């Protein structure tokens, strides 16, 4: 495809009309550095869409005239960098093109009050309104499929995601982690203004944040006061330093696993921001849903793709059933199962086939727990209150360090109520009956009546949702994914997109 530079809004509208492929859009204000290069090359490697980079220094997002005048402009170099790293087209409009005077169709937007009235929004009045206005305008002109943004401006990223949601725009946001220079400071177009002394100060600040992250990993706590004291001793002028919930930007709560430590400092005329994510454990994905929704297949694939542990809770119930049979324990008569459970340990270990083996009291039972004998007993055993209680505790122990995806009926409600991502995977009764029919037919080539299957599924749903112990319930904060008409891979990709959209990339590395 011929590489093009487009300067006028009419031209970009024409170009857009004649393009019959999807677009990856990378908006920038120019003076491109490695952070931008990473955005462009990520877009290029993600898919075969057309990559469009825009370069526009948006006056609306500058609260300070001098800052706008001094904003570095390096167009020729930016064009070279963009094309060399995967841009197919570059849009370089003028201010009059983006904001034609007297044009009543231009919408001047307000950013979400909740997200913009903290951190950078406190001192940069109108900044995020300006960002929303320009991005909305560009999205309407370009109509991309994907929008690529850096996590360095985390607050901007949240505000733009919120804008896309509230305006119901059909664009997916893809983000990349903060790119840091050799000395730890985040790459920013404004860094070129820094004197040697100023750079030393920002380096001190960034390294303090990075150190806080390391300390948090061990101690699970930080002291804002201690960090402020250290920064002040270096005569660093702090605009803010906050420890917040990374999604609401409100004060962090005890139950928040991932939190945001964000700060802004002033170095001479230059204002610099930086942040790190603090994590008590690695993320957890909880997938619940009725029988036949495709949970286990989907969960296994997600675990593989995201390199997470697949916590096969079903295998734990099966392993316990196996042991009870092997040891001849009459669980119906046994008054005190807890005493027996004291000496049981269930662990998962990865094997050479990039799967996990399940061990109970050091026996590898991966194969044996799939026997007909276990099939016939596991449901009974898993409805025993003490069994449920014991295994939920074991599952939570495995989940203490996170980094897993678990599937079941009560994962998001009971086992991991603070999972970062909760999915309720379901499909209509018709769809599940059809799947079950083709499954059964391929196994035993028997004709099965679809209506009978539907009745079975309805009854199973009713029993699962109404049983006393661990009923199937959708957690309030779970996202419902209805799989009718979607292939397994499409469902897996959808859930991975939801994960990537929620979990900062920095914490996934
Ligand atoms: O992050 C930036 O460079 C700008 O805020 C953006 C998103 C290009 C809007 O002008």
Physical arrangement of strands within the biggest beta sheet = 1-4-3-2-5-6
Spans of at least 5 consecutive residues with low confidence: none
Determine the mean pLDDT.
93
Helix proportion of residues, in percent?
40-55%
Oligomer type: single chain
State the CATH architecture of the largest domain. 3-Layer(aba) Sandwich
Shape: globular
Structural class by SSE content = alpha/beta
Q: Remind me, CATH topology of the largest domain? A: Rossmann fold
Number of helices: 20
CATH hierarchy class name of the largest domain: Alpha Beta
Helices, strands, pairings?
Blueprint: E1 4-6, H1 9-18, E2 23-28, H2 34-46, E3 50-55, H3 65-70, H4 75-84, E4 89-91, H5 95-98, H6 113-116, H7 120-123, H8 127-142, E5 146-150, H9 154-166, E6 172-176, H10 196-219, H11 224-233, E7 237-244, E8 258-267, E9 270-279, E10 284-288, H12 295-306, E11 309-311, H13 313-326, H14 337-341, E12 346-350, E13 356-360, E14 363-364, H15 372-382, H16 385-398, E15 404-408, H17 411-415, E16 421-426, H18 429-444, H19 450-466, E17 479-482, H20 488-502
The chain binds pantoate.
What features would you describe in this structure?
There is one protein chain. The protein is an alpha/beta fold and 509 residues long. The chain folds into three domains: 173 residues, 3-Layer(aba) Sandwich (Rossmann fold), CATH 3.40.50; 91 residues, Pantoate-beta-alanine ligase, C-terminal domain (Pantoate--beta-alanine Ligase, Chain: A,domain 2, 2-Layer Sandwich), CATH 3.30.1300.10; 225 residues, P-loop containing nucleotide triphosphate hydrolases (Rossmann fold). It is built from 20 helices and 17 strands. The protein has a six-stranded parallel beta sheet with strand order 1-4-3-2-5-6, sandwiched between helices. Strands 11-15-10-16-17 form a five-stranded parallel beta sheet, covered by helices on one side. α2 links the parallel β2 and β3. The radius of gyration is 27 Å and the shape is globular. Bound molecules: pantoate. The site of pantoate (PAF) has 10 residues, from β2 and α8.
